[in-house]
């Protein structure tokens, strides 16, 4: 229930669903953005690597959204982006959850991908497990850079995300967007993904059978 997870919770509440969210700190602080729906979510403190704290929530659940992500060293990124989400996926499959949604990413082109190797390898490993455990009922979201408001975001992160409202329409509605199909450098021209659209797409995948199992930024943008 971080940046993306919180928006998925909001979208699910708006659909009238019963929602539980697991993170390491419990319920986020009350704010103008959350006050209208946060009370309708059951926030549970827990660690992905200690499923005994949250395993019971999976019983009878119609869908699960795994959206854990982090940056750092190779080992840290591989563990958090990969192993943690794999743990959630395996537990969901064992509990008989019907639908599984994983928030992956559209990976940057070489050479920008080099320092993110652990992030990319971790996400790719989860994608394989999700497809294997939920072959007909999975949704994998592959957004580009995710932007949108987040009260506790680091100033540098907040500054980057502030460019989203400019970058997204520029790449979506100008000839520059056509360059996204180019090899190696094409990823630079993908439109960034608004967090509310990622959250809505995740909520849709967790509650209904969708015709597209893997959504790129253009498919995610349909949930704006």
TrEMBL record:
Matching entries from Gene3D superfamilies are given as: NAD(P)-binding Rossmann-like Domain (3.40.50.720)
- Cellular compartments per GO CC: mitochondrion
**GO molecular function, a single term:** protein-containing complex binding
Cross-referenced SUPFAM superfamilies, in alphabetical order? NAD(P)-binding Rossmann-fold domains
Source taxon at top rank: Eukaryota
Enumerate the Pfam families for this protein: NAD_binding_10 (PF13460)
- Pinpoint the NAD(P)-binding domain residues: 1-147
Protein name per Swiss-Prot or TrEMBL: NAD(P)-binding domain-containing protein
What is the native source organism of this protein?
Answer: Hemiselmis tepida
Classification of source organism: Eukaryota, Cryptophyceae, Cryptomonadales, Hemiselmidaceae, Hemiselmis
């Amino acid at each position: 229930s971080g940046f993306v997870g919180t928006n998925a919770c909001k979208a699910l509440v708006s659909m009238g669903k019963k929602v539980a969210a697991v993170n390491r700190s419990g319920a986020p602080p009350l704010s103008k953005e959350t006050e209208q729906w946060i009370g309708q979510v059951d926030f549970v403190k827990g660690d992905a690597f200690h499923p005994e704290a949250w395993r019971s929530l999976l019983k009878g659940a119609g869908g699960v959204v795994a959206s854990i992500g982090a940056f750092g060293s190779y080992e840290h990124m591989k563990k958090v982006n990969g192993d943690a989400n794999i743990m959630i996926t395996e537990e969901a499959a064992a509990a008989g959850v019907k639908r599984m949604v994983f928030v992956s990413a559209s990976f940057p082109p070489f050479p920008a991908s080099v320092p993110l190797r652990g992030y990319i390898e971790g996400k790719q490993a989860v994608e394989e497990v999700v497809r294997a455990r939920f072959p007909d009922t999975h949704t994998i979201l592959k957004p580009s850079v995710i932007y949108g408001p987040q009260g506790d975001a680091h100033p540098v992160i907040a500054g980057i995300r502030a460019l989203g409202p400019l970058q997204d329409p520029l790449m979506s509605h100008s000839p520059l967007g056509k360059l996204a199909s180019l090899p190696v450098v094409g990823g630079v021209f993908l439109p960034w993904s608004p967090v509310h659209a990622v959250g809505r797409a995740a909520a849709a995948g967790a509650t209904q059978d969708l015709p597209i199992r893997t959504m790129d930024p253009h498919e995610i943008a349909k949930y704006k």
